[in-house]
Amino acid sequence: MKKTAQYLLLAAIALLCIFPFWWTLVTALSTEGNIFSYPPTFWPKQPSLENFVEVFRVIPIWAFLKNSVLITAFTVLWKLVLCSMAAYPLARLHFKGKKLVFGLIVATMVLPSEVNFLVNFITVTELGLVDTYSGVILPNVVNAVAILLLKQAFEEVPQDLVDAARVDGASEWTIFTKIMLPLIAPWLATVGILTAVEAWNEYIWPSIVMSKPDEFPLSVGVLYLRGTFGSSTRVIAAGTIITIVPTLAAFLFTQRYFMRGMDGAVK
Amino acid sequence: MLTQGGPMNSTFTALYYAYDQGLKHLKLPRALAASFIVSLICIGIALLCLRYLKPKHR
User: Fold this and answer.
1) Which domain holds residue A245?
2) For residue A261, what are the CA distances in angstroms to A148, A205, B28?
3) Å from B8 to nearest chain A CA?
4) What's the number of domains chain A is made of?
């Protein structure tokens, strides 16, 4: 009985989470009826792909898509390189001030992102990186969560392997690149996927840094539909669906890595 | 962001104030001061949590 209640509660929460996506999809596929009508309709009336075609016709979606792919790919690449290099010494080396450094990195997790926006905006402006991909990518290439996850991964590698490599004369760099990184590959995949989703969905920071429409990523560019169509909510919904499809596909194919990320965060 | 602080400032939070001042009105010193105060409050809450919610037995 208790288990049934738990399942019912979980099913209700799942429905609540899925509902906005379903409603967006129904809106995008419908061509008739008022979307603000009450009671709302949860099944598309005369389903059609017309709104999707309209999105492709009106905004340069392939250019936005290319920008999103570039930003996401470089964010993932740099984050894996830099965060693994930050996590390794914290996990396996002994040096003065290690606890302090780690404490400061963890402390950044309590700061709200808006605080970072202001400082990052000043830095990016001073470096002349406004309206560049680097301006969008650089502030997102290091974060405490990724360092924490990778630090934990490095700590799980048996010390005997490292000792054996040292006996064979391997340098610290060789141990890091040839032994440690291959062993934590699943964790790197986890961090990479979580970062990719985060970078793909990023909206506020790119909209602050970018002002030229041809450089917008998809998440920002799709909002152009609002200006183009005035109140055509159906076309905006279609644009939103196009934006979230890659993220959903990534989630469906890499669910276990997402779960590993959650496990790591809980531990 | 979604509500722009409205209606009638009912969703105008301290962080939105910092964002609004810094990135909309480009009053960066004021925005940084606001975000610094918010940061101090966040760190204070985090320290209180660490102090009182720490498990007794590890």
Assistant:
1) 59-266
2) 11, 24, 36
3) 22
4) 1
